[in-house]
Design brief:
alpha/beta, 14 strands, 2 domains, Peroxisomal Thiolase, Chain A, domain 1, 32% helix
């Protein structure tokens, strides 16, 4: 069968460097760090006392209080982000059959803060079982897609993918496939996460995964730098409206770009560590290129997973060198996690929006805090250090890799 073309017609973003798409891009293009000391709880006794939090967010500005109290923060984020993307797309009762619109979201952990609060309350209650009646609906990861669907009346496929830090990319690829197979005409997809909580920071500290640069938080997320010491926890998320090309064209929608390929793979190696030769990353990118039916030489910019961890960063570069050959030294590369921190299950959505905006503005966002490139990385690799770069962009590739060896890659093309 002939697959239908899939385009992006709406964007939404709520991030540590901006609460709208415009603010997010301003932060990216100007190399702004979203990191600061934690305000969501007293982190004095934690090994890491900083994170990339969403700032100046008051949920009741967007969602009535009686509804918001039934949602964990990650769901509140998701509903607000989806609202932005839907408004941007111009989808309405007049131009869409809502039975043919899906909501496919990604979240790696879901309602962690809700779970934490309920367990603390239970313990402090001397074992008396008093639980919030909304405990389970707030905690479960699929509540976010359900809330978006209920609010807008979308009756197509509705679920949340959970594959750690690849969750949002997985969701977007699923949405892409439903549309190009002709099952639906549009889908709201993306991801959100809200794990800046005692359990989140404490858990990742126990894994020795987080940076502990407490003396200078704004420089803590430093992908590819020889002095990196772990990732910085972020929160928020992003959304894109995917739509069948002819449907979008017929209603006169603004089209940002085309989604042309998605790739998956598994490291099949270790529950938390990446494959030492980056083999899973290589396979995921290779699968996406084959799906898009393009050559490696056609890729102009790679938004890497680039978490700022000693193990992960060089392995991804190894995979790029293996797959792209000499073009690995011509393609622009950057990690926007240097500015947003790592949004876990929401990372792929925020980074998809970043890549789409890079196409829109013909500019590569920088990798900030990159002062001394790790000696194991070939100096010919263009990591876009510290300053955004104007460049003619036609094709953008975006990687996400997660605990468990889950890998997912997206490819967008200017239209």
């Amino acid at each position: 069968m002939t697959l239908k073309r899939v385009v992006v017609t709406g964007l939404g973003a709520l991030t540590p460097i901006g609460n709208t798409v415009e603010e997010f891009w301003n932060g990216l293009s100007n190399g702004v760090s979203g990191c600061d000391f934690i305000t969501r709880f007293d982190a004095t006794n934690f090994k890491t006392r900083f994170a990339c939090e969403v700032k100046n967010f008051e949920v009741t500005d967007f969602i009535p209080r009686q509804d918001a109290r039934k949602m964990d923060l990650f769901t509140q984020f998701g509903v607000v982000i989806a609202d932005q993307a839907i408004a941007d797309s111009g989808l309405s009762d007049e131009n869409i059959n809502k039975e043919k619109v899906g909501v496919i979201w990604g979240s790696g952990i879901g309602g962690l803060k809700t779970f934490e609060d309920e367990m603390i309350g239970f313990a402090q209650g001397n074992g008396t079982p008093r639980f919030n009646p909304f405990f389970i609906p707030k905690m479960i990861a699929d509540s976010v897609s359900g809330q978006i669907s209920i609010k807008h009346g979308f009756r197509g496929p509705n679920y949340v993918t959970v594959s750690a830090c690849s969750s949002a990319n997985n969701a977007i690829i699923d949405a892409f496939n439903y549309i190009r197979l002709g099952r639906i005409v549009a889908c709201i997809s993306g991801g959100s996460e809200a794990t800046v909580a005692q359990a989140g920071v404490g858990g990742f500290n126990a894994l020795k995964a987080l940076s502990e640069r407490n003396d200078d938080p704004k420089t803590a997320s430093r992908p590819y730098d020889r002095d990196r010491d772990g990732f910085v926890l972020g929160e928020g998320g992003g959304a894109i409206v995917l739509e069948e090309y002819e449907h979008a064209k017929a209603r006169g929608a603004k089209i940002y770009c085309e989604l042309i390929g998605g790739g998956f793979s598994s490291d099949a190696y270790h529950i938390t560590a990446p494959h030492p030769e980056g083999y899973g990353a290589y396979l995921s990118m290779k699968d996406a290129l084959e799906d898009a039916q393009i050559a490696p030489e056609e890729v102009d910019y790679i938004n890497t997973h680039g978490t700022s961890t000693p193990l992960g960063d060089p392995q991804e570069i190894k995979a790029i060198e293996q797959l792209f050959g000499d073009h690995a030294y011509k393609v622009s590369i950057s990690s926007t996690k240097s500015m947003t921190g790592h949004l876990l299950g929401g990372a792929g959505a925020v980074e998809s929006v970043a890549g789409i905006l890079a196409l829109e503005h013909q500019m590569v966002p920088p990798t900030i805090n990159l002062d001394n490139i790790d000696e194991v990385i070939d100096p010919r690799i263009d990591l876009t250090p510290n300053v955004a770069k104007a460049k003619k962009l036609n094709v953008v590739l975006s990687n996400c890799f997660g605990f468990g060896g889950h890998n997912a890659t997206l490819i967008f093309r200017k239209i």
